[in-house]
Design goal:
It contains 18 helices and 30 strands. The protein has 658 residues and is an alpha/beta fold. A hairpin with a 2-residue loop joins strand 9 and strand 10. The two termini are 23 Å apart. 29% of the residues lie in helices and 22% in strands. 5'-O-[(S)-butoxy(hydroxy)phosphoryl]adenosine (WT7) binds next to helix 10, strand 20, strand 24 and strand 25.
Length: 658
């Protein structure tokens, strides 16, 4: 967990130029919305839902709290997400507006208008229906960053089939577990994905996942041909996406679903157990995706919006697939990685496509800053970034140094940096500055958006005074909140509305501190056993059980260590069944364990460091002393009290990484 930044003070705030005609065009307008939401939350949300979404049948009920914390929003209204993202933009010349500019790993471009995107979505939606997919059936998506990824998601939305996207960096086993949990009937994947000049198999991994036992439920595998590379093929089950599209009509009547109908299920890591399927609704989720595009990003017809996230994460759902399209915006989608062919790729793309709003992760900023400092050729100053007007960050705390570099070197001192705090569970931005309105403080996500009742409480759920750290909670339900954990309502209730806090507060899982003068929030990092590595969320328990499943491993403990580039790095402490390995042997076993984790979870979960010892440091009651392991991982001298540790001598063994 990174050290808390000092709370922002009014003095360090930088004023920014007012943006003419923004959706929220000044502090007074912001305050007015906050007040409107406080006075009558239901009327506030109802007004916004009527103004920002097209309804087939208007809702008459705004919020149903009768089964709290299982809230329902706009639940007797009927709508379709894909209709709201596509069809409603097609009139008055809208069909010829550019929806997506796709840049492939190698730089090739594909441009799609709203009319073309609509036609492709309809064809795929018809194809899914032709393969028997009906409203409520789940479709798994395991695709690279592509137009096809967005088309597949929107096609599912069109026929009311909730999708579940799995990031391409997850292993066959992870894909299998998610596919089995969600009970998918169709899998949409690609032959290969291309990143950084390398071809990576997706279909082969997907087949491995299916062979692990989803063969009964998954009757169809749709394959997008990205590279034409050789892949295994199961006749009857496997079908090419382009062949399906060619046989289908370019129009498709949307499935009108009630607002509570699940739009998607996205798996994310928690502090315990297996990943949980975060279930989002159609109406409430889409409202917030559309609205935050306007409020936070001030999206305009003249903008070129670029969010660098992957569709496998919530950021790619809300700010690639749904938000920009719901707003009728033009966006960039990028297949590759920021460092290939060199670390100037992002800047080159901003110049090439005249990107005006650029939304990325602190980890990317830190690594590109390092690269630019080492090599002037990949410095943003080498590129014309004059098209930029807004910058945003998401996924992890941003350190003031990286924030300032981003603002000055990329934003040229003209562009507000919007540090947006939110989570898979919240559906969209929760605490974020408004461009041109909120004075900025590097390292602070500033103020909650109107309607979001964020607060900081202690372990018993009582408000803590400003300036004191505590647990970040949300006090009132909001439309885009998760509805449940798929198949596990008990886990939803216990995990997000814990009894210890009184059962009514949404617990984010992050620590935060609020400045007494400005009211600004600063997020201090997770308070549970969830790590944030390069903005990717990982449960320590998940990595530990994967390690423990290795035949040679007796026991494993995983902690995070602060890292200047990736935020946190994974450090694993391992006790083998045999003797503690020495030097070269330790290296070999560590490599083997890393490969193992790559297969059990995915390359993104591979520990940076693995340390071996003869036993875990434990208390007399047998609990692993994690605070000691965290210190050891940081390389700190152990000055803490070890009197409660039964076997303090083992700590020294762990002092060296393999
Ligand atoms: C966790 C959620 C939100 C989309 C990407 C991550 C951390 C997220 C910030 C921020 C500090 C942040 C939190 C949060 N986080 N944004 N602006 N400042 N921390 O979604 O995988 O659900 O992870 O990411 O720890 O709980 P996620």
């Amino acid at each position: 967990m990174s050290a808390p930044e000092p709370a922002p003070s009014a003095l360090s705030m930088s004023p920014i130029p007012l943006i003419e005609g923004a959706a929220i065009d000044g502090m007074a307008a912001y305050r007015a919305l906050v007040d409107e939401a406080r006075r009558d939350p239901e009327a506030f949300w109802a007004r916004l839902a009527r103004e920002h979404l097209d309804w087939k049948q208007p809702f008459t009920r705004t919020l149903d709290s009768s089964h709290a914390p299982f809230f329902k929003w706009f639940d007797d209204g009927l709508l379709n997400a894909s209709y709201n993202c596509l069809d409603r933009h097609l009139e008055n010349g809208g069909a010829s507006r550019t929806a997506i500019v796709f840049e492939a790993d190698g730089g090739e471009l594909t441009t799609l208008t709203y009319g073309e995107l609509h036609a492709r979505v309809c064809r795929v939606a018809n194809a899914l229906r032709a393969r028997g997919v009906r409203r409520g059936d789940r479709v798994m998506i395991y695709l690279p960053m592509s137009i096809e990824g967005v088309v597949a998601m929107q096609a599912c939305a069109r026929i009311g089939a909730p999708h579940s996207v799995v990031f391409g960096g997850f292993s066959a086993k992870s894909l299998h577990e998610r596919m089995a949990d969600v009970g998918a009937c169709v899998l949409i994947t690609a032959d290969e994905q291309v990143r950084g000049g390398r071809h990576l198999p997706l279909k082969t991994i997907a087949d491995e996942a299916l062979a692990m036992g989803c063969g009964d439920t998954v009757h169809t595998v749709i394959v997008y041909r990205r590279t034409g590379g050789a892949i295994p093929w199961h006749a009857g089950r496997d079908v090419w996406l382009h062949e399906l599209e060619a046989t289908q009509s370019a129009t498709c009547e949307p499935e009108w679903v009630d607002a509570e109908h699940p739009l998607f299920i996205l798996y994310t890591s928690g502090s315990t157990g297996t990943p949980k399927g975060v279930q989002h609704s159609t109406g409430g989720y889409l409202l917030w995706a559309a609205l935050t595009m306007k409020w936070t990003f001030d999206i305009r017809a003249s903008d070129v919006f670029w969010c660098t996230a992957d569709i496998g994460w919530i950021t790619g759902h809300s700010y690639i697939c749904y938000g920009p399209t719901a707003a009728g915006a033009t966006q960039m989608i990028f297949e590759g990685v920021p460092t290939w062919p060199n670390a100037g790729r992002f800047w080159q793309m901003i110049e090439r496509h005249k990107v005006s709003i650029f939304y990325t992760a602190p980890t990317a900023i830190r690594s590109l800053m390092k690269a630019a400092q080492a090599d002037p050729d990949v410095h943003p100053a080498r590129y014309d970034l004059g098209s930029l007007r807004l910058l945003g960050t998401v996924g992890e705390p941003i350190n003031p140094e990286a924030w300032r570099w981003f603002a000055a070197q990329v934003g040229g001192g003209r562009c507000p940096v919007l540090d947006t705090f939110w989570q898979t569970e919240t559906g969209g931005h929760m605490i974020a500055p408004l461009p041109g309105v909120t004075p900025l403080v590097p390292g602070s996500c500033t103020l909650p958006l109107p309607g979001i009742e964020a607060a900081i409480v202690d372990e018993t759920g009582r408000d803590v005074p400003d300036g004191h750290g505590g647990l970040l909670v949300i006090k009132r339900p909001w439309p885009s909140m998760l509805r449940t954990v798929w198949g596990n309502p008990a886990r939803y209730r216990a995990g997000y509305f814990p009894e210890e806090l009184g059962g009514k507060l949404y617990l984010a899982g992050d620590g935060a501190i609020r400045d007494s003068e400005s009211g600004y929030f600063t997020i201090t990092g997770r308070v549970d056993d969830v790590l944030n590595v390069s903005g990717h969320r990982m449960g320590t328990a998940e990595i530990e059980s994967a390690l423990a499943a290795h035949p040679q491993v007796a026991e494993a403990a995983v902690v995070g260590r602060p890292d200047a580039t990736t935020g946190e790095a994974i450090v694993a402490f391992v006790v083998l069944k045999g003797p503690c390995p020495l030097d070269g042997d330790a290296q070999r076993v560590a490599d083997e364990l890393r490969t193992w984790i790559g297969r059990e979870i995915g390359p993104i979960a591979k520990p940076r460091e693995i340390r071996f010892g003869e036993a875990m440091p434990k208390t007399r009651s047998g609990k692993i002393v994690r605070r000691l392991l965290r210190s050891v991982a940081k390389g700190e001298a152990i000055e803490q009290d070890t009197s409660t540790v039964e076997n303090p001598a083992v700590i020294a063994q762990f002092s060296k990484a393999a």
